[in-house]
Amino acid sequence: MPLMTYLDALRQGIWEEMERDPAVFLLGEDIGVYGGAFKVTAGMLEKFGPERVIDTPISESAIVGAAVGAALMGLRPVAEMQFMDFISCGFNQIVNMAAKIHYRWGPRVPIVIRGPSGAGVHGGPFHSQSNEMWFVHTPGLKVVAPATAYDAKGLIKAAIRDDNPVIFFEHKFLYRRIKEEVPEEDYVVPLGQAVVRREGSDITVITYGAMVWTALEAAEQLEKEGLSLEVVDLRTLLPYDEQTVLASVRKCSKVILLHEDTRTGGMAGELAALIAEKAFEDLDGPIVRVTAPDTPVPYSPPLEEYFLPSARKVVDAATKLAAY
Amino acid sequence: MLPKLTRAQHHDLYYYLRLNRRVDEQLVSLYRQGKVVGGVYSSLGQEAISVGTAYALEEQDVIGPMIRNVGAVLVRGYRPRDVFLQYLARRDGPTGGREANTHFGDVARGVIAPISMLGEMVPVLAGVALAAKLRKEKRVALTYVGDGATSTGQFHEGLNFAAVEKLPLLIIVENNGWAYSTPVEKQMAIRDIAERAQGYGMPATIVDGNDVLKVYAATRLAADRARRGGGPTLIECKTMRMKGHAEHDDARYVPKEILEKWRKKDPLLRFEKHLAQKKLMIAEEKAAIDDRIESEIREDVASAEASPFPAPEEAARPAWA
Amino acid sequence: MATRTSKARSPDPTTLERMLYYLKLTREAEWRIDHALYRQGKIVGGVYVGRGQEAITVGATIQLNPGDVVVPTHRDFSAFVIRGFSLREIYANWLGRADGPTHGRDGSLHFGDMRRGVVAIISHLGSWCPVACGVGLALRRRGQGNVVVVFFGEGTSSEGDVHEAMNLAAVMKLPVVFMCNNNAYAYSTPAEKQYAVKSLAARGPAYGMPGVSVDGNDVLAVYAAARQAIARARAGQGPSFIECKTFRMAGHSAHDAAEYVPEDLRRQWEKKDPIVRLEKLLLARRILTREQIRALEASIQREVDDAIAQAEASPLPEGASALEGVCCGPDCWWKREN
To answer: Are A236 and A142 in contact (CB under 8 A)?
Structure first.
């Protein structure tokens, strides 16, 4: 099995779906001739031609809107936001157009809006955001955030095949930093299913995206100190896998909710409410959140470091919770 | 008719053009040494636009610079040190390390900081112009956009509003031929962005963006018109992006012949030639300015490199006023 | 610049009769909406009609082929009828009925059906224009010369989405016809406060597409201009922009008395009523007699009466059905019904 980076696995997944289904096509800025700002679509223009790999003007609203229109007509567009930070320029098309069409008048809107999100690359406030909750809060959408190369390929294929608008948050920090064995054949990772990345018994850490690796790093450190951390990777944020989350909480009785996104209105708050509602009796300690603070993502390295959750912060939180 | 520029003003223009060029070169050098945090977006070849426009404004005017308008903020009084501190993410930079590259500003100095989303500053600067109009001030607002940004809805809404309200807004379109890898032919179906203006009912001018005097003149005329209550003007400056979108982009998609053609029109060289021909700047004067720039840069780079990073806790400063 | 109509380019008598039918049907059907059903409290929420502007929708939509697509607004009632929605369906949607096209989930004319080539709008003005571009992209790929006609008002033309859509359509040469219903008022905002050009036709060349302005109350002028634009699009020559100048004869909505509109301006436009003008032409050309027109009116009355009765008699949706159909899954209601 070949070793692939997260980015290559993504590219592989998109490539396979383009080959498999002629209705699939790509649109976005600099994705054709340039192969995409991060080269996710490199080689695709040459292989599939300009009708299926479209370099657009700078028009996020038109990119999303046109994707919706094409989808109504039976095509399956995959639109790229050069940085997910810019998704706000097409916000209305997503939350009011794409998300509500099926509910209101029936047709499917099988679009995927994908792009690099997340911090840790000195990107500053507009190249580092985690905007998933704007969309988790919008019924009618699906929201996905792969953490591994295997999942990047499997989930993008599932997203493209899904009949609903899927907002696909890739993590730019992971693009070239992780490499795994990824099968060359066709496979999908179903949407809506979480996975236990590491079995444990004392505390469960529920997270997604790049923070999965942060949690795993913390788990390694804590094992040396005799603390057993379970790590659950949500993979899909909307709809999220309640069952796996609750099973893990019941098993460990203590939970840390971890995300790179800012604190208020983040996924951790949603999960905390769920756990309090449905697993109150199973808890042996308070629900703990480890998140970024409520500020824009700052630019300078010491500021960004302070802002981001780290293995150190997870270890500290776990140590404290274990003592409860 | 515009009043003629004095000899000293010609020297000013030369100073800022060359300062812009040298700051840019220094940034690239710092980038190659791995000292810059984040990306460097060069303004090589486009200096005449930043300098010519900013120099034509008055003290009370306000600009909305974009990523390639370092020259404009230098004209407005920022120092190379400020730019280096920003790019090096240091505590004593204009944003204390919270923001990157040209994303800084100061209302008192008449500079509104941009965000990364293109086109978004147009309505904001229209608002600045609106305030000036409501307060009956002789203030002009000037916004820069690239050819790519003119495709955005924000560009449209800003221009239409400025036209309807006859706002004192100057829209400087820097048509440098490329938006990352997208050439203008893929960006729009018209040849001159100035054609957009007819759709809004505002006048437009097309100028050679590599001729600082032409840029200056067009801006002065438009600013004077705006101050008289004549409303907005779109000034399309034709130029060329001489490097990639950023330093990490080798721009292999740009045909070499295009770059060769534009190299011959380098704004700095052309102005130097002009000054020499018209005997507006002799060799000693040029040397003095060049030396002054070199020592400013040397000093500012050293000072910026030596200055501290911000304290980590600064990140948690509240997002509210 | 207005397009003159000549007998040579005029549609045939059958089409002219159909035009009169759709115009009169729309006028009567909408009158019942804002003057009867709304006032009787039977329609809840906002009520928007296209009174006085009917010629724009009819003139363009009547010439579309089955494979073409239209994106009509709340002021384009006749587009739905022309594309095959029944009056009953339209009233059922206004009345929020379970068997209406949206099963009560959205009101007014916010519905559509891809099989009938109608894309539904949302309330955010102009947001449907980029969607029309995507439709155009798919139609071009299909390669059968189909086009998409999209409507919007002069107020909407100020929206960023319209700009992005027109630019995209122009640079990609998409088969889109942009029909601008310039009815002089966007709620209380008169045209002079909406844009600073004399005519929005100037927007066309600003994007690199043809732009014309026609008398929106002359159904034949609209028909002729749309015909040219549609032919251009079918031939792969790209998009066009048509400004149709008209007047909003009702308020922005049923609850708006529109006191900001000068009375004499309204009266001026009353004299240019599009239906009266077409009637005059049909009579003059002896295509219809007065008696036939009376009979048409009576028949329309009955048609509208029946549709309203049927719609009123049908049940409102069950509350719990609000939870259905948010996402499309394997057992999706829409899949079942289609």
So the answer is: yes
